[in-house]
């Protein structure tokens, strides 16, 4: 992704896919819970934990019919509004794009985001939840392509291009952010 697309979540993101199913008290899926009959708008609460740069502001977006609905969170959760029109035969699908707030002039340390659980509540107060396994995580890095300054004469020059990961506070375990503990940059200690 080029630097101009850093704020556009539909260019670079981790993707969270969720399927919400309506069940009755006997555990039978309600096929008539859809946009034409009984479905209600619901709030989908995504709870997460962070390792690494825990001060990063999380950004999220959902692309529905060409529109992007987005928000930010600095807590351990965010609420996503799922409209009743998304339900069909007792099911609704949500695809949520997740990243952290970026600025091409300010580098950020790595972060691991782990989805802890998902909770839903409809406009009638009916609720449900789903726990996820701890391997539902994504690592976020602030990276760059870099070439040290080269000087020469003539038309052709061989130069080295480095891919670098920013990590100023790299006291984090190497088994978590293995890419941040690679070879140090040619000309900047934090890359």
List keywords for this structure.
single chain; 191 residues; mainly beta; five-stranded antiparallel beta sheet; four-stranded antiparallel beta sheet; 11 strands; 0% helix; disordered N terminus
Write a brief structural summary.
The protein is mainly β and 191 residues long.
What would your notes on this structure say?
By secondary structure, the chain is mainly beta. Helix content is 0%, strand content 41%. It is built from no helices and eleven strands. The strands form three sheets. Strands 2, 5, 7, 8 and 9 form a five-stranded antiparallel β-sheet that branches. The radius of gyration is 21 Å and the shape is elongated. 21% of the residues are buried. Residues 1-6 have low confidence and may be disordered.
Would you tell me the overall average pLDDT? 78
Major β-sheet profile: 5 strands, antiparallel
- CA radius of gyration: 21 Å
Backbone structural class:
mainly beta
Order of helices and strands: EEEEEEEEEEE
The share of residues in extended strands comes to: 35-45%
What is the terminal-to-terminal distance? 19 Å
Instruction: Let me know the number of strands.
Output: 11
Low-confidence stretches: 1-6
Number of helices: 0
What share of residues is helical? under 10%
Shape: elongated
């Amino acid at each position: 992704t080029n630097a101009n697309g850093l704020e556009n979540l539909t260019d670079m993101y981790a993707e969270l896919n969720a399927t919400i199913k309506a069940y009755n008290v006997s555990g039978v899926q309600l096929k008539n819970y859809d946009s034409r009959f009984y479905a209600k708008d619901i709030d989908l609460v995504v709870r997460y934990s962070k390792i690494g740069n825990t001060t990063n502001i999380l950004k999220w977006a959902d692309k529905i019919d060409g529109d992007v609905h987005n928000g930010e969170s600095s807590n351990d959760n965010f609420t996503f509004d799922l409209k009743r029109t998304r339900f069909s035969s007792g099911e609704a699908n949500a695809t949520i794009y997740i990243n952290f707030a970026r600025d091409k002039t300010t580098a950020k340390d790595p972060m691991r985001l782990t989805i802890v659980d998902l909770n839903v509540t409809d406009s009638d107060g009916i609720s449900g939840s789903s726990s996820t396994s701890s391997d539902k995580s994504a690592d976020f890095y602030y990276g760059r392509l870099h070439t040290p300054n080269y000087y020469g004469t003539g038309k052709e020059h061989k130069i080295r291009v480095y891919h670098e990961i920013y990590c100023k506070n790299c006291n984090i375990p190497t088994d978590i952010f293995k890419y941040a503990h690679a070879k140090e940059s040619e000309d900047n200690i934090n890359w």
